[in-house]
Amino acid sequence: MAKKGFFSWFRKDKSQDEVVAETPVVTPTQDDATERLAQQEQAEVQQAIEVEAHAHAEKQAAEQLTAEQAQVKAEAEQFALEHARIEALDFAKQQAEATRLATEQLRAEKHAAEALAVAQLAAEQRIVEQLAAQQLAAEKAAAEQLAQAETAQAVEPAAELQPEPQERPVKEGLFARLKRGLMRTSENIGSGFIGLFRGKKIDDDLFEELEEQLLIADVGVETTTRLINKLTEHASRKQLKDAEALYDLLRDELQKTLDPVAIPLVPNNANGPFVILMVGVNGVGKTTTIGKLAKQYQSQGKSVMLAAGDTFRAAAVEQLQVWGQRNDITVVAQHTGADSASVLFDALQAAKARKVDVLIADTAGRLQNKAHLMEELKKVVRVMKKLDPEAPHEVMLTLDASTGQNAISQAKLFQEAVGVTGLTISKLDGTAKGGVVFAIADKFNIPIRYIGVGEQIDDLRTFNSKEFIDALFTQEKADS
Where in the cell is it found (predicted)? Predict the structure, then answer.
């Protein structure tokens, strides 16, 4: 270790003195201020710490409150969703159950309706078959009588034909038969009138009696009202006082009612067969009318073909075949229950191929309140038009005069369904309700082609309004 010299110790002592000299001298007053300042700073720091702690606590409390509120809201939303899901599930179950019950009820109602329809159809079928059997028997008997009469006339020796019958005008004989056929109708529109007008004055009572007489004859309310108004107007304008003067006026008005519909059917078609579609309800004499028309057209030199479109009744096909065999006329037919439109399509094809002049097509006897049968009839018309856009050239509705005002409803329904172009009014010889001819003519203005006034072939007559009126009123005058 080196020895320190004297100067080393001197410098050391000098440094210590300098340190002592640099240290300030603290007085008691300065100590108090410093202490207060330190305390103040410490208090401020403590206050800042407390403020910060309080703010932090408030922030934490706010965050906790927000979190709690969010949790409550989430729980509420979850509850609402769950509640809605449960309600939706319950509603869906209720809807499914209601749908199931409705489906079952609908199925049960449909089954019941089908069963009822089948039962009704079966009952109607039985009635139709019974009526058909009765009608077939009657028509067969009538046809046999016709055949016998025709045969007897054919083999009758020429020597037995006296000159006087040969010279007798045919029209007189036919007119006499027309009068006989209309005899029952003329009792109401004929002899009833002469008793009504004779020796009476024209007053309200007379017109009331006339109105009643016309209604009894089934002239119909609308037509009767129109006739009474016309007669009242004439009587007032001409100042008539004698009731018998109204007689000729009534006759003229009745003929004016029929004149517009007295349009004969001319079955000519240069482009192929003239197609006549026969429609009508069961029992009106439609099939018999077809047979008589076929015979008349054949006697006029026309070739004729028949189509057995009434596949609903076996008896109808058999009836038509009997007429065809008797008159050597081709009948196109299929089995019972076959599609009617198919039968008529085949018949029209065959008629075209054979260049037949007239094709007469039978159809099922439609009940005018059976919509499905009327739709089938529309289908028949559509199918025919595929082969010939103009076919059928005539839609002929057969009406039974003895049904009276029911014939009006039949004409209305068939007219709406297929557009009737001509009428045949049958069985005028067996009824006193022949006044329905006037009602039909006045209401529909459809041409009346033929009227049936007896069983013979010639008793299906081309409708002539003048002859018809003459037969009614001449019969009445003859009786008077």
Answer: Cell membrane; Cytoplasm
pLDDT in tens, 12-28: 555 555 544 555 555 56
Q: Does 363 carry a binding-site annotation?
A: yes
DSSP E strands in 67-183: the ranges are: none
The answer to the question of whether 426 is labelled as a binding residue is yes
Q: Which amino acid is at 51?
A: V
In terms of phi and psi (left: phi > 0; alpha: psi -120 to 50; beta: otherwise), the region of 198 is beta
Residue 429 annotated in ligand binding:
yes
Phi-psi region for residue 162, left (φ > 0), alpha (ψ -120 to 50) or beta? beta
Answer yes or no: is 112 a known binding residue: no
Residues counted in the chain: 480
pLDDT in tens, 265-293: 999 888 889 999 999 998 898 999 999 99
Contact by Cβ (8 Å): 218, 402? no
Instruction: Please indicate if the annotation marks 352 as binding a ligand.
Output: no
170 is in an annotated binding site: no
Binding residue per annotation — 280?
yes
339 by Cβ neighbours in 10 Å (0-12 / 13-18 / 19+) ranks as middle
Q: Which of 88, 187, 67, 108 is nearest to 428 (CA)?
A: 187
427 is in an annotated binding site: yes
Q: Is 364 annotated as a binding residue?
A: yes
Tens-digit pLDDT profile for residues 444-461: 999 999 999 888 888 899
- Whether 287 has a binding-site annotation, put simply, is yes
